[in-house]
Automatic annotation (TrEMBL):
Signal peptide: none annotated. It is found in: Cell outer membrane. Gene3D superfamilies: Carboxypeptidase-like, regulatory domain, TonB-dependent receptor, beta-barrel domain, TonB-dependent receptor, plug domain. This is TonB-dependent receptor. PROSITE patterns: TONB_DEPENDENT_REC_3. Its main location: membrane. GO terms for cellular component: cell outer membrane. It comes from the Bacteria. It holds the Pfam family CarbopepD_reg_2. It comes from Mucilaginibacter limnophilus. The keyword ATP-binding does not apply.
Length: 786
């Protein structure tokens, strides 16, 4: 039987009686809300009992009041002006609010901590709508990937405190470079679609907005240790001073993670630290963050070939002992929040990121001429060579936002950013078993690139009766200088200049305090990445991509059920798609396709069955199509390209159904048993839906190996079990014990892959590679909070 549940509601105002829209309300850390444009809030589904209600707003003193809930309660709170500001370190202008006409999911620090056993950040987002994650090593530690609505990491905008994290050239986000960042995260907002205006590369599938740790008023020390399968060990030490002298605080974290990986040799040795210091004045908050990550991972990024997968699912084609990726990334952030008046506030940041490292690889009998060298010994044209390919880069800039609230019914935000990237790409030969006439660490190529990225945006939210009107315009300018192919296929300095205008508009209708409907339209634009430019000649340079994103949905917040449904239609113009054509060094070339789209429905909800039993679930159904698509297959018999024309085809690595479920049972205070499930339908490895050109049968010698016939990944259904128990003793504020059993039922599955089909001898050969994920594995954790 469901226990009686009530609501706690009210209004948050200033001493002069003005409403405070956007104030944060929490009820004994179990329920949270944000006040609307009129300063009103409502917390629903509250069981009878005694609670502490807390209200906070930047520039005002946080206030707590006791509340005895034995029926519906109205609690109005007046916040006094603070002697120092509270904290708003993230550039909130890039985030969606509760009533924004945008599809998003918020994860609190508590949500993140429940699943943080040391796996990479994408794995902590696995239960959010339309998300698929994968791991090179198979364990979620080391190199990982995330897709939102089928869009890969190069199309997902990532910010940390409003500062761009995506690599400026490849456009990807490599969370392995900041291991255990989750232990320093306060909250995350995942937006789907184009979303709000943000800094960095445009969002073509979604955004991940990360806010790191904020102020804690009392001193603390935390120890967190995880250990388990594949010799996985995670050690994290965190400490903070709390508020000193009513103005200062300092926080620190030190982490290390090791795992042997599920795939052979695919170890990860990861280290990181996070330092933060803040000053709180009457109207000013200044925070400095310094965080560093070091990763040394054995390469497993090619996947397991189809001809090995049936015999050894853990196969790694690399055996050279130092076939490693070795990289260090240092981040420096200076964040400012300034309350100029009761109606005007400013947030800004200066940032600098330094990255440096290499990947080392062994090349068997490599042609010496490929390194620009002339053979020294007669007849010696090849050598066994060990080389390192380096990346040494600097990324720095400024982000800012000015927020004006003229009335309780309107908010205007103007912001933007200027960021600059300087990157050096160079290669060294560090070993050769033949005399090839070079000295130690011979540099055989160098490629310097720089990129300037400027944007400015204006955003308005206006409440008219029960309607919220939303408008957002952004201008973005990019200048990129790089080495690329000229008309004679020589490496030459080139440049590209692009200008984008991205408007957005939406409307939300507030049916009542618990229900609203919304609709929006947004335009996103995106420049080609480094490989698109360097692998093309100026006359054949790829075009920038454009996305027209239509979203509409319904949200509800109820005593027993909260959830929503969102429909989307994402129409792409000039989307860059792999064609099968090869460049002069055998790498695939992307080209623009005129017309492609993603259309679907996303559903998510949380049902409170009883006070101790709840169910959270998501489901995404979509169609992901290219119209009038041409695929090219290389024919080794005559060095030609054979064309396959398709009127409509499915976009690669875009499952039509993604679902997740979490059943949580709290048998006693401090304990939890959670059963997590994830289903992902089948995916194609390329854009042909496993179609071969007419007249070219599949290679008959691979009979009996289903992986070699189909350029496809089968659907998978994976279940995890999570146990948590928290208790305290006199000397320790909290002792947390955790156990995570991943892939509980030992499912054998692959989450991603690649394919290189070609023709020879009249047959189609499918060279397929799969990223095999671990079978059943266990991680345990012990945490101590002082």
């Amino acid at each position: 039987m469901v226990s009686a549940q009530f609501s706690v509601s009210g209004k948050i105002t200033t001493p002069t009686g003005e409403a405070l829209p956007g104030a944060t309300i929490s009820l004994t850390s179990s329920k949270n809300a944000v006040t609307d444009a009129n300063g009103n809030y409502q917390l629903i589904g509250v069981a009878a009992g005694n609670y502490t209600l807390q209200a906070s707003y930047i520039g005002y003193r946080t206030q707590t009041v006791p509340v005895a809930v034995d029926g519906n309660k109205t609690v109005n709170i007046t916040l006094a002006v603070a002697n120092f500001t509270t904290e708003e370190v993230v550039v909130t202008a890039t985030r969606a609010g509760n009533n924004s006409p945008i599809a998003f999911t918020n994860l609190s620090k508590k949500d993140i901590e429940k699943n943080n056993f040391g796996q990479d950040l994408p794995y902590l987002l696995n239960q959010t709508p339309s998300v698929v994650v994968t791991s090179d090593a198979g364990t979620g530690i080391g190199y990982t990937g995330i897709r939102i609505r089928g869009s890969d990491p190069t199309r997902i905008n990532v910010t940390i405190n409003g500062i761009p994290y995506n690599d400026s050239e490849s456009q990807g986000s490599f969370f392995v470079d900041i291991p255990d960042i989750a232990s320093s995260v306060n909250n995350i907002q995942v937006q789907r679609g184009v979303g709000t205006s943000t800094n960095g590369a445009g969002a073509f599938g979604g955004s991940i907005n990360i806010s790191t740790a904020t102020r804690r008023d009392t001193a603390y020390a935390d120890l967190n240790n995880s250990f388990g399968s594949f010799n996985t060990v995670k050690n994290t030490v965190s400490a903070g001073t709390g508020l000193l002298g009513n103005h200062f605080s300092f926080d620190a974290r030190l982490s290390r993670i090791h795992s042997d990986g599920y795939i052979d040799n695919a170890f990860s040795n990861l280290k990181s630290y996070f330092l933060s210091g803040a000053y709180y004045g009457k109207n000013t908050t200044i925070r400095a963050n310094v965080f560093t990550g070091f990763e040394r991972t054995y390469q497993a990024w090619n996947g397991v070939p189809d001809y090995e997968i049936l015999n050894n699912r853990r196969y790694n084609e690399y055996t050279y002992k130092n076939q490693v990726d070795n990289y260090t990334q240092n981040h420096y952030q200076l964040l400012l929040d300034q309350r100029i008046s009761n109606k005007l506030s400013f947030s800004g940041a200066l940032h600098y990121t330094k990255g440096s490292g290499y990947y080392e690889e062994y090349k068997d009998q490599d042609p010496i001429a490929d390194y620009g060298l002339t053979p020294v010994s007669p007849g010696v044209d090849t050598a066994n060579i060990v080389r390192r390919r380096w990346l040494d880069n600097d990324f720095y800039g400024v982000t800012y936002a000015l927020k004006y609230v003229p009335t309780s019914k309107a908010t205007l935000t103007v912001g933007g950013a200027y960021n600059k990237y300087d990157g050096a790409h160079f290669g060294q030969i560090i070993f050769s078993d033949e005399n090839i006439g070079i000295g130690p660490e011979h540099e055989y190529y160098r490629d310097n690139a720089n990129k300037n990225d400027f944007n400015i945006f204006a955003r308005a939210d206006v409440n008219i009766g029960d309607f919220l009107l939303y408008g957002d315009i952004q201008y973005r300018h990019i200048y990129y200088s790089f080495f690329g192919l000229d008309r004679n296929l020589n490496n030459a300095q080139q440049n590209a200049t692009l200008n984008f205008f991205n408007p957005k508009a939406g409307i939300t209708y507030k049916i009542n305090e618990r229900n609203n409907v919304y609709a929006s339209f947004a335009v996103g634009s995106r420049e080609p990445n480094r490989d698109d430019y360097t692998d093309s000649q100026p006359q054949n340079r790829p075009k920038a991509e454009k996305l027209y994103d239509f979203e509409a949905g319904y949200r509800t917040i109820g005593e027993a059920f909260s959830g929503g449904i969102n429909g989307f239609y994402m129409l792409y113009k000039n989307q860059l798609i792999l064609t099968g054509a090869l460049n002069d060094v055998g790498s695939p070339i992307r080209r623009n396709v005129d017309d492609s789209y993603r259309a679907g429905v996303e559903i998510d909800g949380r049902l409170k069955i009883t006070d101790v039993l709840s169910w959270t679930a998501t489901a995404s159904i979509s169609a992901n199509k290219i119209k009038n698509y041409d695929q090219f297959f290389y024919n080794y018999d005559d060095d030609s390209l054979v064309e396959l024309r398709l009127d409509k085809t499915t976009i690669a690595l875009s499952p039509s159904f993604i679902g997740s479920s979490t059943i949580s049972y709290v048998p006693f205070k401090g304990g939890e048993i959670a059963f997590l499930s994830k289903y992902v339908s089948s995916q194609y490895l390329d854009n042909t839906m496993t179609t071969n050109p007419a007249g070219f049968p599949t290679d008959p010698t691979v009979a009996g190996n289903p992986y070699a016939f189909n350029r496809r990944i089968d659907g998978f259904f994976v279940n995890d079990l999570r146990l948590r128990y928290n208790f305290s003793i006199k000397a320790i504020k909290n002792i947390g014990l955790g156990l995570q059993v991943s892939n509980l039922f030992n499912e054998k599955y692959e989450a991603s892959g690649a394919t290189y089909p070609s023709l020879a001898g009249g047959n189609m050969y499918n060279y397929n590679y799969f990223f095999v994920q671990a079978t059943r594995s266990v991680l345990g954790s012990v945490s101590l909070n002082f």
